[in-house]
Design brief:
seven-stranded mixed sheet; 7 strands
Length: 218
């Protein structure tokens, strides 16, 4: 799930190519990437969020999970730069979609009870501007759920084995990683987000590859 860095637009990439790991031939890779989604859904399940936006929704994998869950959602949005997301409405007619840049979204301030932003913020070179925009569209006492790579030596080695590069600038799942999970966490807490839950996947440090976190904003 990738809004990609700053203002660069990736209109020529099929949705299925954004995160090909969901359909990887390697069962461990498949499990790892889908585990992130199930944890994010669990972090949504114990809060009362009636209006939800998935920012950097990509191929809609998390949206489908939310849509098929028993969450009581009145309004569900998917947001991404890729215009291909509009085709997702065929499978999820009750969801709405917006082709927007994370730095300047169309939504009014204090709009959502919860926002999910999975594996997106690490691609934002100007992360301070990105987190301010996420803060703007969230209501008071609302929640943000993120997933970010730790960028440890283990993570980077596995990424190199899987993709042949540490940070892909082109091709499927493209996008430079400007920040790691800890730096994203620091950028969020700096503007007032309070981290209340953190799940390390697949194991605790030093064997964690991703942080999936839930933040509260007052």
């Amino acid at each position: 799930m990738n809004m990609h860095k700053d203002t660069q637009q990736r209109f020529d990439i099929n949705l299925s190519e954004i995160v090909p790991e969901y359909e990887s031939k390697n069962p461990l890779v498949r499990w790892l990437f889908n585990k992130r989604l199930s944890i994010a859904l669990n972090l949504l399940s114990d809060i009362d969020a009636r209006t939800i936006a998935d920012i950097g929704c990509g191929d809609g994998s998390l949206l489908r999970l939310i849509n098929s869950s028993d969450l009581n959602v009145d309004e569900l949005w998917g947001v991404d730069l890729n215009p291909g997301i509009l085709a997702l409405k065929r499978d999820m007619p009750n969801a709405q979609f917006a082709i927007d840049n994370l730095f300047n979204m169309r939504f009014d301030s204090n709009r959502f009870d919860a926002v999910t932003c999975l594996d997106t913020l690490e691609h934002m070179q100007n992360i301070s501007k990105a987190v301010q925009e996420l803060k703007r569209i969230l209501k008071n006492n609302a929640y943000l759920i993120t997933s970010e790579p730790v960028e440890s030596a283990l993570y980077r080695s596995l990424r190199f084995v899987l993709k042949g590069t540490y940070s892909q600038e082109s091709g499927p799942s493209a996008g430079a990683h400007y920040h790691n999970a800890r730096e994203v966490d620091q950028a969020l807490t700096k503007v007032g987000f309070i981290r209340e839950r953190l799940v390390r996947v697949p194991l605790h440090t030093p064997f964690d590859l991703f942080w999936i976190a839930r933040y509260l904003i007052h």
